[in-house]
Design brief:
One of its GO terms (biological process) is isoprenoid biosynthetic process. Keywords: NADP, Oxidoreductase. Belongs to the HMG-CoA reductase family. This is hydroxymethylglutaryl-CoA reductase (NADPH). The protein contains 16 helices and eleven strands. By secondary structure, it is of the alpha+beta class. The longest helix has 25 residues. The two termini are 49 Å apart. The relative contact order is 0.14.
Length: 420
């Protein structure tokens, strides 16, 4: 039996620098003295509040780095988007494209702004976009849409759960009226019931127009939630506005077959000679890579199979004023590649959780609006097109990164571009 080297284990432990039990206890125990740093109590964004915060911060960093002249000039524009405001962070923005999209809602050659600090990312998406465009463009199809909120109710027994549900199914029209009274754009699309013993989960699914819609559906469902508590013939023991069935900002398997946000599928067929010319590999090699990585994804417990949707979506979301935390759910889906009978490359992606909007949220902020303007997708009537562009962008990235691995260029590209 191999011997455990206690010295090695001790030296590699995070506790190796702790000299004694007393020191460890002193470091970790609660401390109740007043904080030595504090900010202005108000979360507001007035000039007075901003000045008071910087009276604390100026000893820590240069004010102009976060509160530059442009930010000072436009700072009131952020009043509905941030609390305890102190300035802005400049993230580099690059362009990928042109990316030709042949969709129901997006039908154009798009220059796509991507905000990132990761070297090689924009170059990779640009390469994939150019290859797709040279192949006639990517076909995109918005399949479904809906944003959900899922209140949960606890009862004394399964019998009470059943009685509650028997009342709920008679109230759908009333629930719709109550929910839609809170919004000019949201529509209650469907209500599903899930019984788990003495717990009942109600799934309220909405259409949210051109807004991403998380706040919209929360406010609408809150009104229905209050109505239920006031009118239900069976009083719940406990009730909460969301029971974590919606998948909000979490990777989840349910939406692979359903939808949260906007569900889009996209595909392209790329001639073998263009694969070899742009990627220095073959369709057969890319398909083999994909099959082996599908098995690897299954072994790791991956939800869906893709190479790096998160890279495209995070960079696009930050640039265009989307809620970047939604990448946790948006970056799931399925990438698939096949060799056609002619020997060409067929590639597709399906993303069921694209959470984007072209009005509301951060879309009206100065630099974020500028990025949406570059796409031509700011304002009413553009959200479905933005979702199709997002899926097309993900496909461009999948093709490019798989090509890089197959050609042995992945590490070389990062070394070249990140270590100039």
């Amino acid at each position: 039996m191999p011997k455990l080297n206690l010295n090695r284990a001790r030296n590699s432990s995070p506790f190796s620098d702790v000299e004694s039990g007393e020191k460890l206890q002193s470091a970790l125990e609660p401390k109740y003295n007043k904080p030595n740093k504090k900010i202005c109590l108000s979360a507001g964004l007035s000039d007075k509040h901003l000045q008071r915060r910087w009276q604390v911060l100026e000893s820590m960093t240069e004010k102009e780095l976060l509160l530059d002249s442009f930010t000072q000039q436009h700072h009131q524009a952020y009043s509905n988007n941030i609390e305890h405001f102190i300035g802005t962070v400049n993230v580099p923005v690059g362009l990928a494209g042109p990316l030709r999209v042949n969709g129901l809602f997006a039908n154009d050659d798009f220059l796509v702004p991507l905000a990132t600090t990761e070297a090689a990312l924009v170059a990779s998406y640009n390469r994939g976009a150019k290859l797709i465009t040279a192949s006639g463009g990517v076909s995109t199809l918005l399949i479904n849409e809906g944003v959900s909120r899922t209140p949960v109710f606890a009862f004394q027994s399964l019998s009470e759960s059943a009685q509650f549900v028997s009342w709920v199914v008679t109230q759908y029209d009333m629930f719709r009226t109550v929910a839609e009274s809170t919004t000019n754009h949201g529509k209650l699309k469907d209500i599903n019931v899930n019984i788990e013993g003495n717990h009942v989960y109600l799934v309220f699914e909405y259409l949210t127009g051109d807004a991403s819609g998380q706040n919209m559906v929360t406010i609408a469902t809150q009104n229905v939630f209050v109505y239920i508590l006031e009118h239900s013939p069976i009083a719940p023991v406990d009730a909460f506005l969301d029971g974590n069935l919606s998948g909000d900002k979490k990777a989840n398997a349910y939406t692979l077959r359903s939808v949260r946000g906007k569900k889009v599928s996209a595909d392209v067929t790329i001639p073998a000679e263009l694969v070899e010319q742009h990627l220095n590999t073959t369709p057969a090699a890319m398909v083999k890579f994909g099959k082996m990585n599908t098995v690897g994804g299954l072994l790791s417990g991956s939800i869906g199979i893709n190479a790096h949707y998160a890279n495209a979506l995070t960079a696009l979301y930050i640039a265009c004023g989307q809620d970047a935390a939604c990448v946790a759910e948006s970056a799931i889906g399925i990438t698939r590649m096949d060799v056609t009978p002619n020997g060409d490359l067929y590639a597709s992606v399906t993303l069921p959780n694209i959470m984007v909007g072209t009005v509301g949220g951060g879309t009206g902020l100065p630099t974020q609006k500028a990025c949406l303007d570059i796409l031509g997708l700011h304002g009413n009537g553009k959200a479905k097109a933005l979702a199709e562009v997002a899926a097309a962008l993900c496909l461009a990235g999948e093709i490019s990164i798989v090509g890089a691995f197959c050609a042995g260029h992945f590490s070389r590209a990062h070394h070249k571009l990140a270590r100039k």
